[in-house]
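Re: that backbone. Tokens:
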């Protein structure tokens, strides 16, 4: 005769116990599991939201792939290198850029910033940048006159006001000529450029970068044929890993090719580490809450001695007895966890569509906490709760088997 462990365990779960405290402990356990499951899904989804937000912001400045020199800061792009990029169908477009730190001066205020010289294709490679123009225009030329687009932090530091008619910046760069080191008056190359726009992306960029035409930057740096990097935007269905492998094989060891993740490897690793550290801590809290299962099932085993004796008389094996209490523990925790997951998903859904929890302060670029539900996280949470439930139910189920010798002599 077969004994359905699930049916018996479900009957034990919802039936009234002779000792009321068993019902109370079971309800407390289910409630604790619900709180733990809800906390896990809400916190994990919030971390996902911040991670996606940071990725979207860094995507504006860090492209799908970047080609850098293996040695030094600058290199001269070879014709065959550019030809390979032109002919590759996985590349939507690419841009040559050159970067250097310069001393910027405006009406007596001075500060060192990063000047990034960009060519005409740059806005196609980082098309999202046009959505982050804070004021003015992203244009780098007015007729033949070069213009600069500043990060809002750069503009604030220098006190640049685009509404004024004169926004002429003085840029200074040390000369590389060793013969001029002792001549202070000629120790710096300098040039002037008008500011005609500002962008607001992320503080790291806003406080440090100014965009200028690449020819203007090369002239100031006295680097006519050199660039710092080639930034690449992939075609819609291109695989970044495969393309990186192809280009690495063709270009050899003279160049270093990095993906967007590799350009910000430390940042992404820190974000992932924080997320999984918090997940581990919350999982331990759920584990502690699940200890109530041991108390509840242990008391239930003592109460159901007569039922166990009846089942044994009907031919139930010790595996059947064990499975009944294992399933009982699972039902208690999964019932609470299911309610908690639904509650947590509901909170996340409300946050995504209605922004019910606002960000503190008014200086951040978004008004409410970002949330993103990843179903892989939901599956992982369910598996963790099942594992914890089985772990906590094992000891009481083993105790139920040990009861067999006292209920039926000679039965183990």
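Recovered sequence:
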């Amino acid at each position: 005769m077969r004994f359905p462990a699930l049916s018996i365990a479900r009957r034990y779960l919802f039936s009234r116990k002779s000792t009321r405290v068993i019902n109370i402990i079971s309800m407390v356990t289910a409630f604790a599991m619900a709180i733990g499951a809800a906390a896990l899904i809400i916190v994990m989804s919030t971390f996902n939201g911040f991670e996606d937000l940071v990725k979207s912001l860094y995507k504006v400045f860090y492209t799908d792939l970047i080609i850098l020199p293996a040695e030094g800061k600058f290199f001269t792009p070879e014709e065959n290198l550019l030809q390979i990029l032109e002919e590759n169908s996985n590349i939507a477009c690419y841009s040559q850029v050159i970067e250097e730190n310069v001393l910027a001066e405006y009406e007596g205020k001075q500060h060192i910033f990063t000047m990034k010289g960009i060519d005409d294709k740059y806005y196609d490679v980082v098309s999202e940048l046009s959505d982050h123009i804070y004021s003015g225009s992203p244009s780098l030329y007015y007729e033949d006159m070069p213009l600069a687009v500043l990060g809002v932090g750069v503009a604030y530091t220098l006190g640049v006001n685009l509404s004024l008619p004169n926004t002429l910046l003085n840029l200074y760069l040390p000369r590389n000529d060793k013969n001029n080191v002792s001549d202070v008056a000629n120790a710096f190359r300098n040039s002037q450029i008008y500011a005609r726009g500002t962008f607001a992306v992320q503080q790291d960029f806003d406080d440090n970068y100014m965009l200028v035409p690449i020819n203007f930057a090369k002239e100031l740096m006295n680097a006519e044929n050199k660039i710092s990097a080639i930034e690449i935007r992939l075609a819609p269905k291109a695989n970044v890993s495969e393309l990186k492998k192809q280009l690495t094989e063709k270009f050899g060891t003279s160049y270093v090719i990095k993906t967007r993740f590799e350009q910000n490897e430390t940042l992404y690793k820190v974000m992932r580490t924080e997320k999984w550290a918090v997940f581990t801590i919350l999982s331990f809290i759920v584990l502690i809450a699940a200890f109530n299962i041991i108390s509840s099932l242990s008391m239930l085993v003592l109460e159901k001695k007569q039922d166990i004796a009846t089942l044994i008389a009907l031919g139930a094996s010790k595996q059947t007895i064990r499975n009944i209490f294992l399933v009982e523990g699972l039902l208690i925790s999964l019932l609470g966890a299911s309610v908690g997951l639904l509650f947590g998903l509901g909170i996340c859904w409300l946050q995504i569509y209605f922004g019910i929890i606002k960000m503190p302060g008014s200086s951040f670029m978004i008004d409410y906490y970002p949330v993103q539900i990843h179903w892989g996280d939901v599956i992982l949470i369910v598996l963790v709760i099942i594992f914890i439930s089985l772990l906590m139910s094992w000891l009481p189920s083993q105790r139920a088997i040990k009861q067999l010798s006292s209920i039926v002599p000679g039965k183990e």
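The chain has a mean pLDDT of 86. The CA atoms of residues 56 and 128 lie 9 Å apart.
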